[in-house]
């Protein structure tokens, strides 16, 4: 049996103008990849994009406005939003308080098609 892999948060690459760190599973023996978002900046978030796999957003604090296909919805702390593969989506931090979110990519590597 192989031992567990431990990765320190500070060793992960920083993205989204410093508001997120990326864990790419392939580099650590994992079948998933994760983005950890932490920001106070209103409007912070990625532009419209899609992936060839599902993406699951676990909102731990704050809120964000999500565009998922033709649907707009506000995601709040305590909610989980699942975006199916190939569906265009984006989010932007809204409301008061810090947005704390874990974005789980069902892939050992990030594969993103930017649409705007």
TrEMBL record:
Domain of life: Bacteria
Entry-linked Pfam families: Cupin_2
Residue intervals of the Cupin type-2 domain: 41-104
UniProt xrefs under InterPro entries: Cupin_2, RmlC-like_jellyroll, RmlC_Cupin_sf
Record's protein name: Cupin domain-containing protein
UniProt source species: Jiangella ureilytica
